[in-house]
């Protein structure tokens, strides 16, 4: 939750209204807490135990994605946040690559996102990471709705991957694999 607070404060300095509305913020945090409780959120931890980033996956958001989008073919990525002290290390794209690998391992076709409609800087960031804008939905009760996707398995930084499970890539050994909860379509 500290990352969320830090992200809100940082976004205010960037001239965007993202995450500034208390009512929608409370709903979003409730949904995020549920994803944490259900084991659908992960953190990237630094060498000294500090949380550097978080990402969640979730069910398809039916306010935006329809049956015609074949939502079962996608891993839906939510709540990607990077601590300000980790900014500039390309951690966000490495987390996206991690989720992309997970989507491919599950046999999915896409990694999909929905972001705040008015945050053009965030749209440009995701487009630089290989996401293609699909469309913008204007649900009256939501401020998100800029929809994008990129192919599952696509990697932006193939030579600097985050481990998929603890111990991967260390001394040529892999410790026990963590069970990743599957996303229901």
Describe this structure in words.
The model is unreliable at 170-185 (pLDDT under 50). With 185 residues, the chain is α+β, with helices and mostly antiparallel strands. It is 28% helix and 23% strand. It has a six-stranded mixed sheet with strand order 1-2-3-4-6-5. It has helices spanning 2-13, 22-37, 91-105, 120-128; strands at residues 41-45, 51-58, 74-82, 110-116, 132-136, 144-151.
Jot down its keywords:
185 residues, 6-stranded mixed beta sheet, alpha+beta, disordered C terminus, 28% helix
What's a concise summary of this model?
This protein has 185 residues and is of the alpha+beta class.
Layout of secondary structure:
Blueprint: H1 2-13, H2 22-37, E1 41-45, E2 51-58, E3 74-82, H3 91-105, E4 110-116, H4 120-128, E5 132-136, E6 144-151
Parallel strand pairs: 3-4
Antiparallel strand pairs: 1-2, 2-3, 4-6, 5-6
Care to count the β-strands?
6
Main sheet strand line-up: 1-2-3-4-6-5
Percent strand equals 15-25%
Question: Into which percent range does the helicity of residues fall?
Answer: 25-40%
Poorly predicted regions are 170-185
- Give the overall silhouette: globular
**Oligomer class:** single chain
Count, helices: 4
Q: Kindly, what is the distance between the CA atoms of the first and last residues, rounded to a whole number of angstroms?
A: 27 Å
Structural class: alpha+beta
| Rounded mean pLDDT score | 79
């Amino acid at each position: 939750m500290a990352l969320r607070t830090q992200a809100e404060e940082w976004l205010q300095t960037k001239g965007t209204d993202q995450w500034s509305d208390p009512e929608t913020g409370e709903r979003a945090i409730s949904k995020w807490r549920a994803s944490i409780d259900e084991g659908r959120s992960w953190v990237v931890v630094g060498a000294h135990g500090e949380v550097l980033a978080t990402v969640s996956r979730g069910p398809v958001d039916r306010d935006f994605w329809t049956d015609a989008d074949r939502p079962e073919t996608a891993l839906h990525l939510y709540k990607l946040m990077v601590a300000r002290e980790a900014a500039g290390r390309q951690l966000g794209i490495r987390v996206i690559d991690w989720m992309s690998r997970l989507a491919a391992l599950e046999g999915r076709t896409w990694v999909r996102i929905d972001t705040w409609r008015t945050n053009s800087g965030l749209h440009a960031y995701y487009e630089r990471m290989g996401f293609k804008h699909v469309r913008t939905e204007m649900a009256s009760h939501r401020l998100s709705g800029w929809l994008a996707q990129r192919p599952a398995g696509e990697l932006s930084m193939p030579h600097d991957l985050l481990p998929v499970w603890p111990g991967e890539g260390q001394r040529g050994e892999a410790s026990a694999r963590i069970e990743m909860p599957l996303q229901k379509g």
